[in-house]
Amino acid sequence: MSLRLRIAAASIAVGVLVFGLKLGAYWFTGSAALFSDALETLVNIVSSIATLAAVWFAAKPADSNHPYGHDKAEYFAAVLVGVMVVLAALAIFRAAWEGFTNPNGPDYALEGIAMNAAAGLINGFWAAYLIRFGRTARSPALIADGKHLFTDVITSAGVLLGVVLVLLTGWTLLDPLLAALVGVAVLWSGWGLMKESIGGLMDEAASAEVLEKIRVLISEHGEGALEAHDLRTRIAGKVTFIDFHLVVPGSMPVEDAHDICDRIEEAIRDDVDGAKITIHVEPEHKAKHSGIVVI
C-alpha cells in the first residue's frame, strides 16, 4: 500500500477516535454545542472514507478507457467532502434550534470538557500533517480532508471558549447560539471546498507563477527553434498537462526538431512536478510572432 493510501486510511482511524471522544463529551454534558461538534466529526469519518477510495482510484495507471489517467477522481472526493460538510451544517442548525426552543442548561462536567479538548488537539495535529503532505504529494483529496479537519479544530476551539463563557456568566442560551455559529463556520468551509474542487474538474489552468516558469524554460532550452505559441495547461490532481506549438525552420530535419522537443521536455519535467507535455512542431510560416521568443 502506498504512503498516500496509508495516510488516507489513517484519517479514518483518527476520525473514529476523535468522534468517540466528542460523543463522550456530549454524553457527559448534554451540550448542543458539543453535540454539533461531534456531528461534524461524524462527517469527517464519511469524507475520509471517500478520500481513501478516491486516492486508491486516482493511483491506478492510465488505461484504454482513461488514457490521461485517473487523477481527477480526487476532485470528485473533494466535492463530496464539501457536500457532506454542508449536510453537517444543516444538522448542526437543527441541534441549535432545538437548544433555543428547549433551553435546558447543559451540565458542563469537567470530564466532557477535557475529552473535547483532547479531541481538538488530535484533530489539529492530524489536519496540519494532512495539509502539508497533501501539498507535497499534490493530492486535492488529502488537502481537502486536512482543511475540513482544520475547520473542525477552529470550531472546537470556539465551542470550548463558549463553554467557559457559559460557566462564567450562567447564560445558557449561549450554548445553542454557539452551535449555530459553528454551523455557519462549517457551511462556509463546505462551500470553499466545493468551489476549489469544481475548478479542478473544469480543467483550471496552472497558476500564473507556473505558467511564467514554463515560458522561461521553453525560451531558454529551445535553442534552434524560432518561437512557441498557444501555450495551454490544465491541472488534474498531481499532474499538470502542458501543450504548445513550437515553430522551427522549415528546412530543419525531423530528428533535429525532435531533439529540441526532448530538451525542452526534460527541462520542464525537472522544474514542474508531474508535468505531462505535448509539443506540436510547425514550420516557420506558421509563426504568430506573438508567443514565446526562443533565446
Automatic annotation (TrEMBL):
Keyword Methyltransferase among UniProt keywords: no
Keyword Isomerase assigned: no
Chain ranges of the Cation efflux protein cytoplasmic domain: 208-284
Location of the protein in the cell: Membrane
Principal location: membrane
Lipid bilayer topology: Multi-pass membrane protein
Cation efflux protein transmembrane domain boundaries: 10-202
Residue intervals passing through the bilayer: 7-29, 41-59, 75-96, 108-129, 149-171, 177-194
Gene3D superfamilies reported for this sequence: Cation efflux protein transmembrane domain, Cation efflux protein, cytoplasmic domain
Protein known as: Cation diffusion facilitator family transporter
